[in-house]
Amino acid sequence: MGAVYIQIVEANPHLRSLLGWHLQQSGYRVQQSPNGVRAKEVFLLRSPDLVVLDADLSEGDGLELCRWFNRRGQSLVMMLSARTAEVDVVAGLKAGADDYLTKPFGMQEFLARIDALTRRNRALAAPISLDYGDLTIDLVHRRVLYRGTHIDLTPQEFSLLYVLTQAGGDPLSRSDLLQRAWPDAIDNPRTVDTHVLSLRKKIETDPRQPSIIQTVRNVGYRFNVEGMLAEVNSPYAAQRYGVSQQKISSISPNR
């Protein structure tokens, strides 16, 4: 299972950045949203494992946004609020929050609660497939479909593609890929290049100008998550994620 993905919806930019930094240092993948409108768009595209939600968003009711999250997925919600009265805590929990943390709070307590929630999330059923626009990765049968066509991958090619997708768009070095995607210890980084070339020939429209698996100079390779979801020729992306192509194209990860 890949790293846990957390979406932070917090109006205060300083607190938002601080929480994001600490979560990333703890090994979580993080996406930050400053308001409810942006939060909904990102949520539909990214399907986070957990949402850290500011209950006191200036442009709307955080409780209603919490209800919206709960109606559209299985993501857990941690609500943050300066409201400390019992009636406010109860209202937050009734709105669907899985935890309620009052401001101000200590960072160690925040991280401990996040850890407790993510442990609970890991107990849920694992996904049976991963969807990236036109690309579907069937985790049960270890098959790949691209634009409705089955792509015949070797076990090693499948493992390589899966590891790249789990990085969430972050580049991985050849050394990282050898450690994560190969069952046996291999020291030759050219092995990665050979398999990436083979994989590109099978899933790229033009392997000479790859758009799915991109080369990152002096680093290694990355899976183009944004490009797959925003692909202009995709008739599926907007339908699957419930937003317009224009909105999909405007979204890129905060890293």
Query: What is the element string, with H for helices and E for strands?
Result: EHEHEHEHEHEEEEHEHHEEHHH
State the share of residues found in helices, binned by percent.
40-55%
Helix-strand makeup class: alpha/beta
CA radius of gyration: 20 Å
**What is the fold named in CATH at topology level of the largest domain?**
Arc Repressor Mutant, subunit A
Per DSSP E runs of 2 or more residues, the count of β-strands stands at 12
- The CATH architecture classification of the largest domain is Orthogonal Bundle
Query: What is the overall shape?
Result: elongated
Low-confidence blocks of residues = 232-255
The first-to-last residue Cα distance is 21 Å
Tally of structural domains: 2
Largest sheet: 5 strands, parallel
Structure at a glance:
By secondary structure, the protein is an alpha/beta fold. The chain has eleven helices and twelve strands. It has a five-stranded parallel beta sheet, sandwiched between helices. A four-stranded antiparallel beta sheet has the order 6-7-8-9. Strands 10-12-11 form a three-stranded antiparallel beta sheet.
